[in-house]
Amino acid sequence: MQKHIDTGYxxxxxxxxLKIASPSGMTDNMVRAVCDELKTMGISYELTRRGAIRxxxxxRKKHPxxxxxxxxxxxxxxxxxxxxxxxxxxxPVGTWSARFAEGARVSIHSDDGSTYRGTILPLxxxxxxxxxxxxxxxxxxxxxxxxxxxxxxTLDKLWNLGLRVGDFVSIDTxxxxxxxxxxxxxxxxxxxxxxxxxxxxxALIDNEITPTLDCYLLFTISEEVGIGASHVLxxxxxxxxxxxxxTIAPDQNTCEFGATIAMKDSxxxxxxxxxxxxxxxxxxxxxxxxxxxxLHYRSxxxxxLQAGSDIRTALVCFGLDASHGYERTHIHSLSTVSALxxxxxxxxxxxxxxxxxxxxxxxxxxxxxxSEKKPQ
Length: 376
Ligand SMILES: [Zn+2]
Hints:
alpha+beta; 9 helices
């Protein structure tokens, strides 16, 4: 299945998406970009009232339906206040450490559509001025401000430029794609997941594979602020696989160059049968994979379940180092995840019964451990 993935396409759309600012709450341009890709591939879609995307790939059977989901929104910031010295105080959108905001280049989006450039800096930014106090100032959002690249040293000037409390601040992603496959950029979470889903859809279309069951491709717009896939689902979706990042860290078991099946996150264990089904698909298609358990993590899946959806959920991750900071992934991990998504969409139903009721025990998916990576 991995050979079907057009990695050139995956990288191209990822690079394009990383250039589009989409902090939670300001996702319209990113929604448009994904709609354009769907249109090009001839995949039908609709937008929800709030602007999330529900695309539809037709299968041989309509029920039970499947869904694969990733989020279009990213972390970002918002203007908290206009300061008397012409600087701007800022608060985070989504959960991320001020440590990773220091030095970031940003755009501030004003009401009239103008964009102003600037840098997020610690209040004590100059070593020549503050000496060791630069190191002693705690890293916190209260200790940051935006230096605007405008002739601007008073609150009045900020006001006259049209800047207001509540303006969105988008953070430059600074993407760098190396020929050895490493991809460095902010907000690979979850633009890499979005690109992996689209590349999986393209693989199905290019190879004229008709999925067994109808499948929705869902793209949500407020995962980073905890809302996730709560409003984009329809009642007829029986299974949903979330595509998001897996964390690379000393005590984690995430596969840096393959796919990771998350067995549990902070919202609880994922669906046993659906997770096993994905593990079996990895083994069957010889996709490098591992399993992991995440402690401080929630995704689109948790939001859907907490909103009351009666669905099976699973989480498939691409390997991501320094998530919500200076992130890095690898193209092999993304293409493996993409191959797993297309294998999943084209796989037989989880249960033999058409309506996804539990069938006889012999029809249950069983684990095959062949290609499983041993924890290091
Ligand atoms: Zn994410």
